[in-house]
Every structure is written in C-alpha cells, then in structure tokens.
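Feature request, filed as a ticket because there's no other form

It would be nice if the structure record came with a short human-readable summary line next to the tokens. Right now we just get the raw output. Example of a typical job, pasted below so the devs can see what we mean:
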Amino acid sequence: MAPDVAEAVFRTKRKRRVLLMVHESFVPPEQIAGMDEEEYFSMKTECDVVHGLRQLGHEVRVVGLRDELAPLRQVIDEWQPHVVFNLLEEFKDQIVYDAHIVGYLELRGIKYTGCNPRGLVLARDKALSKKILHYHRIRTPRFHVFPKGRRFKKPARLAYPVIVKSLVAEGSEGIAQASIVTSDQALADRVAFVHEQVMTDAIAEQYIDGREVYASVIGLHRLEVMPIWEILLDGLPASAPRIATSKVKWDLKYQDAHGIDTVRARDLSAELEAHIARLAKRICRRLNIDGYARVDLRLTPEGEVYFLEANPNPDIAYGEELAASAEAKGLSYEALLEKVIRIGLRR
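Raw output as currently delivered:
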C-alpha cells in the first residue's frame, strides 16, 4: 500500500479514548510553548505521542504514576478507555515493576499497547535474556553477573576486555567510556559504580568490537521488521571505543560536537539485512516480546551478528530509531502510533 493511501486508511478509522500512562515526573503540559529545550527533551516522547494521537483525532487523557495504582484505577473506572498507551518505564523506583502494572491491566481486561508482562520480565534482565538465547543457539557475548551487596569476585573464565552495565537499566544509564575495562581493579571499580550510582546489579560482558545496529519489530503473532538502523560513532576520538554511552544517547551538545546520529544501516547486503531481520524475529519470539520492540545487535567486521539486548517498549518519540525506521518503510509518525494502537486493541 502506498504511503498516501495508508494515511487515508488510518485517518478514516474509528476514534478511540486513549489513556496515556506515564511516570508522574513526565506528564506533558497541555501547551509545549514556553518550555525550554532541556525540559522539552526530557519528556519529548510523551509530548510527541500526545500530539500525534490528537492529530489522529483520538481523545487522549494522561495519567501519571509513581508508587500507587489509585490514579490508574480511578481513571479506568470513570473514563473507561478503549486502550492504554503504555509509556511507563518504572514503578516505585523499580525498573522491573513495569511488568506488574501491565499485569494489572491484563487482570482488569484492559487493552494496552506495547509488550506483555512475560516479555518485559525476560527482556529487562540482560543475563536471563542471554541465557535463553544462547540455549537457542543465538550468538551472545560471554558474561558474568555481579549482584549488589555481594563480595566482588572475578570468575576465571571472564576474559578482557569487558563492558560493565546495569543488569536491568535501559537508555545506556551508567554507561561511559570507562565502562570498558581491561583489568581486575578497573572491573571492581566499575561494578562498584553501577551498584552505588545506578543502584542495581551489574553485568560484565565480553566487549564485541564492531557496529551497533538496531532492528525495530512491530506486531503480536505476525512480526514485522522495519529497515535496519545504526548509530554513527565515527566522529568519536580515535581512541574511544564505539559504544552508545549515556552521553552519546542523551547529551545534545556532545552529539553535535562528535557528529553522532542514527541512520539507515550503511552498506548492508540484501542477504545480511534479511538475516538480521530473521534473527530479530527469532529473538522476540524466544523472549516472548510483542507489541513493539527494538533489538540491539553488534555487527563485527567479519559479518558476525551478536545479540546485545532487547528493548520492549523502546523510545517511540518522533525521529528516534523506531519511528525513523518505520518512516523509511512508508509509515508516518501518526500512522505508526495508529498501528501500535491497533495492535494493542487486538489483544
């Protein structure tokens, strides 16, 4: 279907009551005029989704949650939304509790967008997801988990260099150039940093040199893969490892200074792109991920593809990897949002 025809189809469908579920700190204002750049960027996703849904003609309300369900229960009982658009990433300051909120929606029989509870649980844990995929013969880096509150002890089989991350945090939280370590002392220091600053368990995994590519996947039982995307890190200093640090992801000035951007993956053969797409579908099915997701992969100079992590309910802001890759396939931003809602309504 041509993009202009698809737009017409999306815009003639029934309008819905859509409840946007976000963290209490990211409830977007009714008007974004007057917001400074930093404030807007901190809640760009929420602003973009609200605006896009209203452009489609849907009636939208926003509920902000922090540590109690009462606001969600009240608006569901009073307003009876057709679907909840889930942008919640944590509850009670726990990243992994988002699965429980989605479980509550399922118990109430409420339709929702994004991933189901089981997929959220399996994907959030970077070690558990790698164990499952390794069992299914999908190439993953070797790794070791350092639980918070336990005495540090490096296993003999863990060879350097490794990259140290939070076991469950997303968005490159806690990742810096110093996350790549090559000695026992540096490993101990970085594990302690994750424990103390990110306040989660740490995972140290084999550092895979190469390009970081992203496969965006949309669907329930029938999965659709968008064009493969990648992050451009060529402008980083020559000595810097090519990794997506927190600065690379979120610091606008740093991005401008080093020419960091995300684009359609360069110079992929049709065979390799098809292989990555098939692999992304396999990963989502093995981890029970549905709705929409972004699978992060490492492509080595030899053409080997390693699984890094899966991101259910990834950033769906305009211009980010998911929306940009969907646009490359002919879906405008509003059409993407409508597709996500339709998938949620089919649960």
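Something like this underneath would help us a lot:
Confidence is low (pLDDT under 50) at residues 1-6.
The longest helix spans residues 270-286.
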